[in-house]
Amino acid sequence: MLQTLRRPEALLLMLAVSMPFSFSVWNTLLNNFVIEKVAFTGADIGPLQSVREIPGFLAFLMVFVLFWIREQRLALLSLIATGVGVMLTGFYPSLAGRLLTTLLMSTGFHVYETLQASLALQWFPKQTSAIWMGRMVAAGSFAALMAYGLVWGLMNLADLGYTWLYMIGGDTTVAIALMAWLLFPQFP
Questions:
Q1: Contact 88, 96 (CB under 8 A)
Q2: The whole model's pTM is what?
């Protein structure tokens, strides 16, 4: 039974849940956090968004990293980087802290998104790849909805602050990536 679940399709579905969960927590809290805790002004959001897009611009450099690290491992490492970036966000309510955690989170995000599509196209049979990719999008959308509900519930019903919410969002992604690292073999 476990062997049938240890397939590339199951791994990619698991990872497809991981990224949108932490990114949705990060993105949902972004504006209120930077205004309430970091005292951002309108001028400060520009550099933050610029730093967030630098890794996307440089994502093409991952081709060279793949000479040393296989795609599956790099995808898992990028998820861990994303999770750690989200997790640390609440602990650094300053402009410099916000820029550094955003850079870490965004680097993981952009590397993973590039590798996710590549792995899906390599591992899914050509005849069913569109179906599986649709399932991955659906799983990610469901994870995002769960994250939105969790943020609302924990802020309004449990009165948790930003630090806790960022920790939960980041920890979830790191935990899923580590489980995937341990449970799944290295696929060709």
A1: no
A2: 0.88
**Ramachandran sector of residue 39 (left: φ over 0; alpha: ψ -120 to 50; beta: rest):** left
Token pair 């050509």 in the structure block, residue: 126
Instruction: Of 92, 111, 120, 98, give the one whose Cα is nearest residue 187.
Output: 120
Residue pLDDT, tens place only, 3-28: 667 888 889 999 999 999 999 999 99
